[in-house]
Amino acid sequence: MKRGSSLVKAGAAILAVAVCAFALTPEQRRLNIDSFEYVWKTVRDKHWQTEPGGLDWQAVHDELRPAIEKADSMDAARAVMGDMLGRLHQTHFGIIPADLYSDVDGAHGSKGGESSTGLDVRVIGAQALVTSVDPGSSADASGVHPGWQILKIAGINMDSVIAKLDETYAKSTLRDLVSRRAVLSRLDGEAGKSVEVEFLDAREQHVTKTLRHEKPKGTPAQFGYLYPTHVWFDSSKVGGGNIGYVSFNMFLDPARLMNLFEEAVESCGKCDGFVIDLRGNPGGIGIMAMGMAGWFIDKPDQLLGTLYMRETTLKFIVNPRVNTFAGPVAILVDGTSASTSEILAEGMKDLGRARVFGTRTAAAALPSVFELLPNGDGFQYAIANYISEGGKPLEGLGVTPDVEAPITRQALLDGKDPALDAAVAWIKNN
Rounded to 10 degrees, what is the CA torsion of 177, 182, 183, 185? Predict the structure, then answer.
């Protein structure tokens, strides 16, 4: 009996220590309240509607202020702020736990990688898969191939990283975008140094490669207050050599990129079709979409859509070129296509000028901001709403492909690209 009592007392003591370990200090409580006020005021002042979400925003504040004052844990504080933002019913408003904030912030272009191992990745289900390997890169020299699964990076299990992200983003349209950036950020590093990566290869064997950080492909470019980013542009012919194909990683460096895009289209005047690959492209300068669309639309006064802000409205008017490409156009997208990529894809689709292949996009067409709150968490909020020319809001919905063509590990291992293959087949049958 005494022994049992001792065990009970010991268990109670351990529980008390655990509770104390997670209890908030007065300073932490104050920072949570400050964060609550900052979030509320930001939405009040910067939302495109004077009454955000059609709500009495002051009443929402007054209702929830007592709850944030009583919040006795970080999770409880986040729940209160999440409740407040959730009432907007708009996906680009949320609280990101401090330990995930750097991954999410990086996903939206705040930090341009100064080095690369030559890999691109996607998180499909619970697997981080290599989707492409840059020729001549460290990964290429090490014998890494598309379809290989990344198990560990610098000793960190990718399944645990993905599982942690899914706690916040499993039901979010941003899941693919954020997960890709979370993996790539762990592959990044100081140029000249290296990182150890464990893979599951095509034979289902574990192999470990030491990949060197090298200068990424592309040309350095900077826009506004974003970190410098290497912007690349690729063009080629696919489908037997008579279908034009372009791919680029961001809508930045307009003077150079628009010239390269023009050259690719003009060199394809007699092509059977044209493919614009926007997979992995998180967006950038919105007006570039208008110029690119102009190479395929010869009618004046055509719109890709309209952006609504608190003080102004911006119409995405297509700028027709003298010699437009009249053949079929396919646009490839996936869950990591966002912002300007979505505007171009949905706008061209609505105008009946392109057919879209791949998987649903990130639904991140809205200009959104990521900021650090006083309590250390991240805060995402949108400052405008976008409506496509077909009357569809991309916020929270994204671009739905005309032809769903998801990528799989087996397809990658077999050297196939389901979305591109489907696009080429459609063009050839047109």
Answer: 120
Helix or strand or coil: residue 105?
helix
Q: What is the DSSP-derived secondary structure letter of residue 311?
A: S
Smallest Cα–Cα separation from 330: which of 199, 398, 239? 239
How far is residue 89's CA from residue 107's CA, in Å, rounded to a whole number? Answer: 22
Per-residue confidence band for 226, with pLDDT thresholds at 50, 70 and 90: low
Rounded Cα distance, 403 and 12, in Å? 59
Claim: this prediction has a pTM higher than 0.85: no
Token pair 């490839």 is at which residue?
332
Query: Residue 100 to residues 127, 161, 167, 178, 293: CA-CA distances in angstroms?
Result: 19, 10, 11, 10, 36
Q: Which residues contact 73 (CB under 8 A, 6 or more apart)?
A: 22, 23, 24
pLDDT at 299 over 60: yes
Task: Please choose, from the candidates 337, 351, 356, the residue with its C-alpha nearest in 3D space to the C-alpha of residue 388.
Answer: 351
**Domains along the sequence of the chain with CATH:** 2-89 (3.30.750), 104-212 (2.30.42.10), 219-428 (3.90.226.10)
Are 308 and 387 in contact by the 8 Å Cβ rule? The answer is yes
